[in-house]
Design goal:
Blueprint (H helix, E strand, L loop, with lengths): L17 E11 L13 E12 L8 E9 L9 E8 L2 E6 L3 H7 L12 H16 L12 H4 L2 H9 L2
Antiparallel strand pairs: 1-2, 1-3, 3-4, 4-5
Helix pairs in contact: 1-2
């Protein structure tokens, strides 16, 4: 149900399934994982997730870790939107967040207390995910967005020289 109007209706390894539901806010629920380390408590984006994993309690997977959940609901019915689990001899990393879409189209506002835009946080999550799944080092640093580094006057001068 993403930007290319697809409709994934199969299951992931181990029988993991999900249900469609757009949510603009997703809550980080595991702050110590390399992918979500030092992230704000909540991510915001136009459809920050396109659904949630809905059968994790009833299938045969092991070592389930949930990093992010939908904000929708009363807390007891929030579905996970970013998960990791073991299946057979492999590791599965799955998300219902269209990370690739946010690389170009993410919101340029910053969470309170951060100098990094939501757009750049989603990009960072994508980069961290790729590095993590490839067993490469993942930095816990969250660099400021370029828009936040330069003052408005410097930005104007930079833009005038393009």
């Amino acid at each position: 149900m993403g930007w290319e109007n697809g409709n994934f209706s199969s299951t992931l390894p181990g029988g993991v399934s999900w249900r469609d539901a757009y949510d603009n806010y997703n809550d980080i629920v595991y702050f110590e994982h390399p992918i979500t380390k030092n992230f704000p408590a909540q991510l915001y984006g136009n459809y920050a997730s396109h659904g949630g994993f809905n059968n994790l309690d009833s299938i045969n997977i092991s070592n389930l870790m949930v990093y992010v959940k939908e904000n929708y609901g009363d807390g007891s019915s929030q579905y996970p939107t970013y998960i990791e689990y073991r299946y057979n001899m492999g590791k599965v990393l799955a998300t219902t967040t269209p990370l690739e879409w946010y690389v170009v189209n993410g919101p340029t506002s910053c969470p309170e207390g951060y100098t990094t835009t939501y757009k750049d946080l989603f990009k960072l999550m994508l980069v961290r995910s790729l590095r993590y799944i490839m067993n490469l080092d993942v930095s816990p640093d969250i660099p400021p967005s370029a828009e936040e580094v330069y003052s408005p006057k410097i930005k104007t001068n930079l833009n005038s020289h393009k």
